[in-house]
Amino acid sequence: MSLTVTMKTATSGLVAAQTALRTVSDNIANVNTPGYVRKAVDQAQLVVNGRGMGVEISGIKRVTDQYLQLATLTAGSDASRWEVVSQYMDNAQSLFGDPSGDSFFFTRLDEIWTAFSAAADDPSSSLLRGQAVSTMEDFLSEAGRINNQVSELGRTVDAQITAGIDRANDLLEQINNLNTDISRAKLVNADGSGAENIQSSLIDELATLTNIQVSERATGGVTVRSSEGFLLAGDGASKLTYNRTDATRGYVSIQSSDGAGRARAIEISSGQLRGLMELRDTKLPGLADQLGEFVARTTEEINRAHNAASTVPAPASLTGRNTGLDDPTVFDHFTGKTTIAIADSAGVVTQQVEVDFDTGAMTATGASPSTTPFTAANFLTSLNTALGPSGSATFTNGTLKIAATSGGVAIDEGTSDKAGRAFSHFFGLNDVIRSTGMSTYETGLTGTDPHGFIPGETITFRLAQGDGKPLRDITVTVPAAGTMNSFITALNDNTTGVGLYGQFSLDAKGTVTFAGASPINATLSVVRDGTHRGASSPSMSVLFGIGTIERTRRANNFLVDSAVSNNPAKLAFAKLDLTVGAGQPAIRPGDGRGALAIAGAGDVSAAFTAAGSLGAVEMTLSRYASEFGGSIGREAAAAETRKTGADAVRTEAKARRESVEGVNLDEELVMLTTYQQAFSASARMITAAKELFDVLTNMI
Question: Got the DSSP string for 121-170?
C-alpha cells in the first residue's frame, strides 16, 4: 500500500469518526427532547479501482421501526377517539344530577306521584293542589333544561369538529412542505433528520385526529393516505371539508391538491374526529331522543288519568290538541264506548250521550233523549244532534272542541280505544300537560285511510352509512290522493323512493318508521320536508316523528296547561259517576279518585318506542326511569372502560417505540468510546504515515 493510499484511508477514517462523534453528541444532547429520534451513521467501504481506500459515510439515518410507528399511530388514534367520547358522555351524565342526591332528575317523577297521592287525601286543599302542579312544572322544566344542555353539548362538539378539520388541513400542509426539505437533504447526503423528526411529530398529531396510512417515499419524506387510499399529503396536500346540516349526519370529504375532480367522502373510523362525529350524530341525539320519549310517555300517562277525570264543577268546554288529522279520518277506527255528559253547577247531569263505536249508535238521555246512528263521516253532525240544545262539538284544524250551552262538560272514557288511547285522551280534551308539537307519533291511521298529504309536494331524504358517509339523496313526491298504503309504497319505490336501502312501514297504531336493509343498514335523515297533511296540518316528518330534529326537541315541547298553572283548582280530581240516581250529583266535591289515578300512573305499563340505547319495550314509567338512568351511567362507564383500555395499548405501543427510537445513554457512551478510539487510531495511522514519509524524504 502506498503512503498516499494510507493517508487517504486514515483521513477517511478520521472524517467518518468525526461525523459519528457529532451524531452521538447530538443524541446525548437531545436525550430529553420530546419527539427526538436517535440517529446512526451508515458507513461503507470506500473502493477505488477495485482497491480499498478507507471508509465513507453513506448517510445519517433516524433509527425507526415502521411496524412500531404504525402500531403507535393506530393506538393513539383509538385512544383519542375514546378520550373525547368518555369526556362528553361524562358531561352528559352529570346533567341528570347525582343518583344518590336529591337533585337527581328521575327522583322528580317520584315527587309527582307523592304530591298527587297527598292531594288525593284532601282534594279541597289548594296548597296540596299547588304543590302537585309545582312538581309537574319542575319535572318538565328540568327536562327542558337537560335537553337544552345536551343540544349545547352537540353545538360544542360540532365546533370542535370544525376546529379539528382546520388543524388537520394545517398539519397536512406542513407534512407535505417538509417532504421538500427532506428530499433535498437526501439528494446531497445531508442530515435531514431534524425535518424528519418534526414531520414525525406532525404525523403523530394528525393520527390523534383521524386514522391514516403512512408510507415512506423513495426520494425522502412520506406519503399520507386515508384508510381507503385517497392521497392526503405527499405530492401536494389535499383539503378536508366537514359537511353537515342540523338535520343530517356529518361526514368529511377530500378535495385533491390541484382542485381537479369532485370532492369525495372519506371514512373516518378512528381518532378524535370519529369520536366527536359519533357524539354529534349518534350518542347525544340518542340521549335527547330517549329523554323526549321518557317525558312524552310520562305526560301521556298523566294525561290519560286526567282525561278520565273532571274538575268540580265541570268546565264549560273541553278543547283538545291538534291531532294532525282530518275529518272524517280522525273519528274512524274507535272501538268500545264512551259517554259525554253535560252537568250543571251542582254536578247533576242534564244531558248525556253514550257513544257506542262498535254498533255505530249514539244514545242520548236527559233533556233531549234520542238514538242516532253515526259513521266516521257524520260523527260531528250526529254528536251535535245527540247533544241537542245542551251543547255542541266542532273540529277545526285537527282539534276537537266540545262545549256546553250552560253548565259544563265531563267525559266517562268507558272502554273506548284508538291506538291505545281512550276517546278524550286521543283528542287531548282534558290534558293537564300540553305540547307545542306532536306529543305522540301514534296517529291511529291505517293502511286503508286516505294519506291526506297534498299531492305533488316533496320530501327529501338522505341515506347514509353508519359512519355518516352519504349514500344518496332521494326526493319523494307525494302521490295523487290515495291511501296510506299507496303512500308507503311510493316511499319504498326502488327507483323514486328509498327501497334499495330500506323500508318504511306503518304499524297497528299508525306509527311510520324506517329500517335500513342489511348489509349496509343505512340511516335516514330529512334534508327538506315540503309536505303538508292538509293546508294547515303538520308535515310528514312532524306528524310521524321522522328525522333527528323532530325527535330530539320533544322534551322542550311540554308545559302544564296555563289554566291549571294559574289556578290549581282546575285540576281534574273527580270522576264522572253515571250510576247515581236521577237528580243526584254525578260530579262531587271531595272526590279524589282522579288524583289517585295520577298518583298511580307511574305503575301503569306503557309502550315505549325504541330511542337512544333502549329498544322498544313495554314497562311502567318508574321502571323505564330506572332503566333510562342506568343506561346513561352504562354509556358513560363503557366509554371510560374503552378509554382506559385504549390508553393502556397506546402507552405500551409508545414505550416499545421509544425503546427503539429513544436515546439510551449507556449505548451512546459505548458508541462515543468506540468512535473516539477509531478517531485515535486514524490519527495514529496518519502520524505513522507522516513519519514514514519523513524517513523517505531524509533518505533521498
Answer: H-TT-HHHHHHHHHHHHHHHHHHHHHHHHHHHHHHHHHHHHHHHHHHHHH
